[in-house]
Specification:
Shape: globular
Strand content: 5-15%
CATH architecture of the largest domain: Up-down Bundle
Distance between the termini: 27 Å
CATH class of the largest domain: Mainly Alpha
Number of domains: 2
Low-confidence stretches: none
Number of strands: 6
Number of helices: 9
Largest sheet: 4 strands, mixed
Radius of gyration: 18 Å
Helix content: 40-55%
CATH topology of the largest domain: Four Helix Bundle (Hemerythrin (Met), subunit A)
CATH superfamily of the largest domain: dinb family like domain
Strand order of the largest sheet: 4-3-5-6
Length: 254
């Protein structure tokens, strides 16, 4: 999928988030989200601040000046905490305005700047255009994290097709030490046929399910409903998601 086409998907996804937030009371916004220690207000604020942080990367690519995604992890966390208890209308306006700003920046990014290298907060580099795909994961996964009625079954099909395939490819490129409970497993998407062999050998354990079911499980946004494992037993716990993209990996051991 061309990255410029994803921008419209992002705008639609953020409108869905705004609609969810508009249906929540003040007490509900201060209630627990699906993320430990965070209220729904924390999640909404993070969605907005993430748009700002990825705007920073695009601005760095545009100007040729390295701008970090966040000034620091501490600043990221303090900004989220500071905005978490705002009124509903302020949260909604922030989520919409920051997405509009990010989308405008992405749509107007010159071709040369789109290919400029930028760096994720975790340290790995990628072309500036890939921030659009990173934002897609943030928008769809954190909508689920609001724990307000939107789940993996509601993810748009274009998002599932892209993110499920990317997640399997990225897992397959991870060093064994990062796979945790998935080490030795073969994972297959039954609808697309895509697989990830994570140190698997013939006769070893396997898991399969639709791309949507696998993405829900591997992203930590479902309990693994629709995923089947052989031999029978509990599904292993996946490593933290999302992963460094395989297509931009710098080499073994990194």
């Amino acid at each position: 999928m061309d990255w410029r086409d994803v921008i419209d998907e992002l705008d639609a996804g953020v409108e869905r988030i705004a609609a969810t937030l508009e249906g929540l009371s003040r007490d509900a916004l201060r209630g627990a989200s699906a993320l430990p220690g965070w209220s729904r207000g924390h999640v909404a604020t993070h969605i907005a601040r993430n748009a700002d942080s990825l705007w920073n990367l695009l601005e760095g690519a545009r100007t040729g000046t390295e701008i970090p995604q966040y000034p620091s992890l501490e600043r990221r966390d303090s900004d989220i905490a500071a905005g978490a208890d705002r009124a509903r209308d302020e949260l909604v306006a922030d989520v919409r305005a920051t997405q509009a700003r990010f989308s405008e920046q992405a749509r107007s990014l010159p071709d040369g700047a789109a290919d400029a290298p930028v760096r994720a907060m975790a340290g790995w580099p990628h072309p500036a255009w890939y921030t659009v795909f990173r934002r897609w994961n943030e928008v769809e996964a954190h909508h689920v994290d609001l724990a307000a009625g939107y789940g993996p079954a509601d993810w748009p099909e274009p998002y599932v097709r892209w993110s499920a395939a990317a997640t399997l490819a990225d897992l397959a490129a991870l060093p064994d030490r990062h796979l945790r409970g998935l080490a030795g497993l073969r994972i297959t998407a039954t609808d697309s046929g895509e697989t990830a062999e994570l140190g698997w050998t013939p006769g070893g354990p396997e898991a399969d399910g639709s791309g949507r079911a696998l993405l829900g499980w591997l992203s930590g946004r479902s309990d693994g409903a629709g995923v089947h494992v052989r031999p029978d037993g509990p599904l292993p716990v996946p490593p933290p998601w999302p992963h460094e993209p395989a297509r931009f990996r710098r080499g073994p051991g990194l």
